[in-house]
Amino acid sequence: MPRKECVAMLLAGGQGSRLGILTKKLAKPAVLFGGKYRIIDFALSNCNNSGINTVGVLTQYKPLALNSYIGIGAAWDLDRKNGGVYVLPPYVREQGGEWYKGTADAICQNMNFIDSLNPEYVLVLSGDHIYKMDYSEMIKFHVENKADATIAVIAVPWEEASRFGIMNTASDRRITEFVEKPRHPQSNLASMGIYIFNWQMLRQYLVADEQNQKSSHDFGKDVIPQMLEDGQKMYAFPFSGYWKDVGTVDSYWEANMDLLAEQPELDIHDPAWRIYSVNPTRPPHYLGPDSHTANSIISEGCLIYGEVEHSVIFPDVYIGPGARVKDSIIMSHVRIEANATVDRAIIDQQTVVGEDAIVAGLPEADGRKIIVIGENVTISSSAVVDKDVASDQQLAAGSGQEER
Amino acid sequence: MQNVMGIINLNESEELLREVTKHRPLAAVPFAGRYRVIDFILSSMVNSGIQNVGILVLSKYRALMDHLRSGKEWDLARKRDGLFILPPAETQPCGSGDIENFYRNLDYIKSSRQQYVLIAGSNTICNLNFKKAFQFHQAKQADITVLYKEQEIQQDDFKHCAIVDCDADGRIVDMAVNPSRQESRKVSMKMYLMAKTTLIDLITDCAARGGTDFLMDGIVKNVGKLAIYGYPYKGFMGRIHSVASYYHQNMELLKPDRWQELFFKSGPIYTKVKDEAPVKYKENAHIANAMIANGCVIEGTVENSILFRGVKVELGAYIKDSIIMQKCTIGANAKLENVICDKDVSISAEKWLKGEVNYPLVIEKGTVI
Q1: Which class would CATH give B280-363?
Q2: Are the CB atoms for B340 and B243 separated by under 8 Å?
Q3: CATH 3.30.230.10 holds for B4-264
Q4: ipTM of this model?
């Protein structure tokens, strides 16, 4: 196979346990987002738009939805003669096999894959961030600085800096120190979990890290601090623009709502940087004579007779006459029957909300703004739901709800 | 149905579609928000199990080729069989009829593996499964089976269609285009099932005896000679042959029953994917009875209309009873009624444009007003 300059390794094995019900059946990168996408579409589309056509996708946790979604990568134009997309699950060797123990271990276990392509650089990406970024700019920066490693950073508000891995840098952007969740941050440049390494050097560090019994085999915790300690040339690539880790239900909901702003920071309508996805074969949606829609995004195949305000609606959703949906995320194939109300809720695929039912998050005093209703739930007519509901439940009116 | 190949014959009258077919064949006219006319017959064939489809193109076919490309969206990018574009021979004089076109492409027909062939036009809008018609064809041991739909033929949409008349057994006893006395309400759907050998005989026979028109010389003249049967189709069928019928057939899809039947009943309708984002409705959007495709950004009012992919409707704009094709921009406070905007039209702010229901105003592709 011809040599590749840069190979992307996309970490997509995470469970995303803080997303709770949403990741009960699938890995976090496969969670639906933004009215038609899955979270992983952003990283894969960035690869395509940046001219990177060889991507290894490391999967582990409940990979069925993710594997079948990625397929041969045609949706992102990654079905290539040379390169393309490779789904890389953990595997068994002669002396048994192991799960991916950490981010660095996942790359280490696929050393033979990267060796077979023999790239100059390896780009390590995370499959659970929402952002648009031109990786070719970052590679250019890496090459110009003759760096051994480059880490993409974003300026975060100072008051939030202690929640992130923070880079302290010299005036030429060379990284002097990396501090994980510092109590008194000296900088507000947070690591975005996007790294470029010179492959031959990374390879040595991965081998050494694998031997280290005390290591947690994580890039942020082990490999990068070790490289810094050894005085390798590491630079911080500054990124400005929208970037969000949708790690919790609240941040997931907020990132969806961000798309509804008058001028959203992340413009999904920009033809110059398309976000690709597997498109459902569905007709344009239909809005009935008495429907009302404002500040919302709505996808193909929907039939809408009721009211939709400040919400994200995925394909094939039915919203009956008199129904009201506000500040919510409604995923594919959901039916909201006549006169039902959905307020501050995330409703997962195939769920039915019966006539006159009310599904509403409690006021913010509860600590969280919104409730999550799992996949394939049936909420009967006139039921009132104000707590999370796990997938595959039948809720009769007045039966109470499942505890969180 | 694996033993059936499909041929889509684009020899269709286009003059009544005026500006809409100036740059493209009827088959490639955008329809229903995100489709082209040909998607319906092509998807119906594919959903019925046909895996080998040849398209007899005539002229102006760049737009069509751009739409179909490898045929991948219809699952027709196959190692064997799949999609074939069959262009006319370069020497073919204009108006020499479609027999010539078939004749020049006989090699493709002969070398295909399938024993049966389904021939159809592109401008019949329907979503149907051909399995039952094929079973009917075999059970009757017919030479040719013509699919027809019984309906009101006074309607403008079905002008210049062939009308068939069947006996009790279903055998066609008469078939005519614009007959002086209409005793039958059975409208031919321009879809014919036959054995491949029958087709080859028909074509070579016509070519040898000066026949030029597939319908007239190939089918109509053989009524009574060959065992030609009519298969009654019961579902929805639309036909596009003029601006008025184009407008009418689009508007019909604002009836949710129609929408449901055409897009979901017997399988999905495939088309070229554009990876457009979901539609964004802003604060002051007001929509009533409309079909809107992905990629649109809407701030104004849209009533009884169809918007194609990537249309921008600015604040205060008012669109009523109109069809707005791909990537049009309707400026602030502009007002449109009974208008068909072709692709890439830009209507600047404050402009008012109005057509009539029976004569919608057509704005040519790329016009800036």
Answers
A1: mainly beta
A2: yes
A3: no
A4: 0.91
